[in-house]
Amino acid sequence: MGERAAVVWDESFLGYDLGGDHPLNPVRLDLTMRLATELGVLDGVEPVTPQQAADEDIERVHDPSYLAAVQAAPYSGWDVGHGLGTADNPVFDRMHEASALVVGGSLAAAERIASGAADRAINIGGGLHHAMASHAAGFCVYNDCSVAIAWLLANGFDRIAYLDVDVHHGDGVQASFYGDPRVLTISVHQHPMTLWPGTGYPRELGTGGAEGTSVNLALPPGTKDAGWLRAFSAVVPATLAAFRPQILVTQCGADTHREDPLADLSLTVDGHRAIYKRLRDLAETYAGGKWLALGGGGYSLFRVVPRSWTHLLATVLDRDLDPDTTVPAGWMAHTARIAPHTTLPTSLSDGGDTAFDPWDGTAETQLDNAILSTRRAVFPLIGLDPDDPRD
């Protein structure tokens, strides 16, 4: 495999810690890397060590005044503005340094691909897709996804597709490039009428010559593996084919899972595995094999995220794992010590059924209506027939 894929990782990523009982607990990263290591997914892989991103790189998408506020926040008390010091985004020690390191990790992944050192690269510590130009939001201080894309635009790429499969709308990345026709943003998420941040309607299409480069597929609560994959397949491949990206950047939040405490979709780890394989196939088919994979949300810290993202790492590395693989005893023992009241899964499968019937052009269900709403909003702008399932 050689340098086919690069993994960006360092334990210093665990310093992005919002503290206390905050849902975004870095233990999920540690447990993922432990599980992937014990299963041999990372055998022979020398991780790329991230460096803290320079201010000028972060300022590709963030206002300098916001950086100054983040840097000063730990010394300024709690009421510092810019979305900092809230329940979602509490101020924590070395907040700028930890956040800049996350950005640096995603930049390192982007640089490996841009330099030709790897076709694929992954930073599970990244995916902080809600941060806006001048404020923190949704557990995200700096938007590493947007910074990496902006860096790629400045380093030889002019057609970048960003695909977000987190349960929450990828609002920060959409906002960064809403008027930029060089960047296609696609977000597949729970319907904004039922989940924060309340954006991501099909009518959000882009502006200023970029109409049709913002694509939002909003799914009804309760959507399961088969429905999610049906909707995805009815919208995403045709959109990518029309856009012809040079690279695919994906945010791979695991909070679509049925056990996630912060949302209401009903996917399984098996569904996640199927999604990651589709992302890999799409990168091969439409982006010359260039794939930058980032982490994201996921708040079932012990039962879901480590298994889901172990499948993600395995997929990026072409070391796909059998869903029925047994969770190693060493990982179980370690996790039981830190989560003694949690019943831990014993395999990498939830027994989910990922088979689905392709969309046939009808709108008989709430899910089919969601598919048609997105297709009718976007497809005419990119030269496709929204009512023809062959497009």
Task: Summarize this entry quickly.
It comes from Allokutzneria oryzae. With 391 residues, the protein is of the alpha/beta class.
CATH superfamily: Histone deacetylase domain
Seen as an oligomer or otherwise, the chain set is: single chain
Radius of gyration: 20 Å
Poorly predicted runs of 5 or more residues: none
Order of helices and strands: EHHHHEHEHEEHEHEHHH
Task: Give the amount of beta strand, in percent.
Answer: 5-15%
Mean pLDDT: 97
Measured distance between first and last alpha carbons: 35 Å
The biggest beta sheet is recorded as: 7 strands, parallel
- Count up the helices: 11
CATH class: Alpha Beta
CATH architecture: 3-Layer(aba) Sandwich
Strand order of the largest sheet: 1-2-7-6-3-4-5
Can you give the helix content as a percent range? 25-40%
**CATH T-level topology:** Arginase, Chain A
The geometry reads as: globular
Instruction: Tell me the total number of β-strands.
Output: 7
What structural class is derived from the secondary structure elements? alpha/beta
Give the total of domains.
1
How would you describe this protein?
By secondary structure, the protein is an alpha/beta fold. It has one domain: Arginase, Chain A (3-Layer(aba) Sandwich). Helices cover 34% and strands 9% of the residues. The chain contains eleven helices and seven strands. It has a seven-stranded parallel beta sheet with strand order 1-2-7-6-3-4-5, with helices on both faces. Helix 8 links the parallel strand 6 and strand 7. The longest helix has 20 residues. The model has no long low-confidence stretch (mean pLDDT 97). InterPro entries: AcuC, HDACs, His_deacetylse_dom, His_deacetylse_dom_sf, Ureohydrolase_dom_sf. This is Acetoin utilization protein AcuC.
